[in-house]
From TrEMBL:
Pfam families per record: CARD (PF00619), Pkinase (PF00069)
GO cellular component, one term: cytoplasm
Gene encoding the protein: LOC108699326
GO BP terms in the entry: regulation of apoptotic process; signal transduction
Family to which the UniProt record says this protein belongs: Belongs to the protein kinase superfamily.
UniProt superkingdom: Eukaryota
Protein name: Receptor-interacting serine/threonine-protein kinase 2 isoform X1
Species the sequence originates in: Xenopus laevis (African clawed frog)
Single GO MF annotation: ATP binding
Keywords assigned: ATP-binding, Kinase, Nucleotide-binding, Receptor, Serine/threonine-protein kinase, Transferase
UniProt xrefs under SMART domains: S_TKc
Amino acid sequence: MQRLPPGDLDNMVVVGEGGFGLVYRAWSRTLGMEIALKKCVQQRHDGSKLEDLMKERDLMHKANFTYVLRLLAVYENSNGECREYGLVMEYMPHGSLHTLFNKIPDVPWALRFRILHQVALGMNYLHHVLVPPIVHQDLKPRNVLLNKVLDVQLTDFGLSKTLTSASTYSTGGTLAYMPPEALEDVNYKPSKAFDVYSFGILTWSVLSGQEPYSDVNSILIMKLIPRGHRPPVSEVEKWAAEKMVPQASNLMKKCWDGQAEKRPSFSDCIQVTQSMLKEYAGQIDLAVEDALSRLKDLNTQEKQGPSFVGLSAANVTTGTSGGFRHCLRMLNDTIDGPPPIVSSASPDVSNNVERTAGQVNSIRKIQFNAPKNAKEFIKKNFSTIVTARPYVGAILPALFSERIFNQEELSVIESSGTAENQTRNILVDVMNKGQRSSVRFLELLAEHHPSLVESLVPL
């Protein structure tokens, strides 16, 4: 595995946050290309995150396939008691499948079917070509990246496991894409059927152009999926006049069957997705050209910065965050209302609440006009805002009520641990959503934390 020499990376810009640390866009002198760097900073006495990153490195190095994001190199840098280690991947200028539908809600059908087929091909490689096979455990639109010509690149192997008898399993993923058997049993051992179910939900998302359960409480999702609830099929069937949508809907329902043993394998799925794609032969190039042209126009109009790569921050997992197990414990208590805005499970968060709660009723007002380019303003002041650890208990409900954040995104932020992590995730999400969301966040920040806003560096 190639290691980049010290000082190799230029123009490093934070573009998001993953489960192990920040994600950067940079230029590699050695590789001569723009890259994405997923970086972990290891303190001398804490090696857990680094161990997880090493596991992801090994899985990515092993999974070398056309529709799986390639690991290009590794990055290392020592600074006193801290050691930085990172995974270097090709930068995806168009972000993820989630980004694509946010920008172009009416993605051409030929491109939708190509995306579904390429996702199925990538998963077939992980399941049926690799020995031992890999179970992804977090297949969703945010983890389906798109390269320069909108070909699929599966990413985020932070939760993935190889299927060997000696493996230690942990259930992870994003609630909306997790199968019922994983939600019913905390001792569940992930199988290939886990990913097939996720593909069924992803298919619904691609065909409907929506996120599943976007306004549903996380606890309710966990309660109702094992009872047979699924995203509304009517949102797909209303497009039944479009070529191959009925066939895709049929495959979707087979994939999300409540009984794991009844779900098809990905070797079965690719036969169906290939036959559907053939019906769009001759239309694919035009569909890709149309989508790329519209993306270019949007980027020009919005003067948009770099698109974000897929991040494992958008996960609700079992692990150190305790999000999944915490939800299971809550099931026996209540399914009414949204989960608490700030988790009391984290000492850092609760300390921050105690430190700031007494100030909420006596906040002074300032005159604040959001900068013309709010996204760039947030990027420039990213570290300052994060390290200030502003109390977000009043900001998050406003972002949720104004539909800037959906329930899944809110749950991810709540389960991200410390106040710094919560703030970091909020910043990443509002920048990813665009100018309007960035402006609204800054307005709320000025309303609740005027001194912090006054201290920020102007563009």
